[in-house]
Amino acid sequence: MAKANGHSADGNKARALELAMSQIEKQYGKGSIMRLGAEGGVQEVEAISTGSLAVDAALGIGGLPKGRIVEISGPEGAGKTMLSLHAIRESQKRGGTAAFIDAEHALDVSFARRIGVDVENLIISQPDSGEQALEIVYTLVRSGAFDIIVVDSVAALVPQAELEGDMGDSHMGLH
């Protein structure tokens, strides 16, 4: 009798799992959730070279994974923007389209040109607020036209309410 109850519980769990997965696929699209061992579950990830053999090797796939969100962190002056610009250059060399969301309003175009970025074909935005930057990124991603989109930097994405407020205003919870 215990075995029958165990099978019934397993069947209920399996049905609940399939229902949950079906709802997620309906809401977010096919491929948004899957069994890792299922056919087509594991796919090769295309990579965009960083322009550095050492960094590409350390990442394990030969560069930055295409179609994924990657955060490059480090102290000021560590080379985060330079690494991003090198990745843009490498993407452009392979015919890719790139965008640079300059939230810091500090992109050195002549430097980008010197390291090989095709600045004439680089799409750039210098948003006024964090919300505007993220809306722009969302629109670019949804277009499907871009191989790489860089946001420089996340720390510079200041909420509109903070920009509009007075110096003494409290902005807890806005970031």
CATH class type of the largest domain: Alpha Beta
Radius of gyration: 22 Å
Q: What's the number of helices?
A: 6
Distance between the termini: 56 Å
What is the average per-residue confidence, as pLDDT, rounded to a whole number?
Answer: 88
Helical content class? 40-55%
Total DSSP E strands: 5
Biggest beta sheet summary: 3 strands, parallel
Query: What proportion strand?
Result: 5-15%
**CATH-wise, what's the superfamily of the largest domain?**
P-loop containing nucleotide triphosphate hydrolases
Give the strand line-up of the largest sheet.
4-3-5
- Output the CATH topology of the largest domain: Rossmann fold
- Integer tally of domains: 2
Q: Low-confidence segments, ≥5 residues, pLDDT <50? A: none
Please identify, by name, the CATH architecture of the largest domain. Answer: 3-Layer(aba) Sandwich
Description:
- The protein has 175 residues and is mainly alpha-helical.
- Helices cover 42% and strands 10% of the residues.
- It has 6 helices and 5 strands, in the order αβαβαβαβαβα.
- The longest helix has 27 residues, at 2-28.
- The chain is globular and about 65 Å long.
- The model has no long low-confidence stretch (mean pLDDT 88).
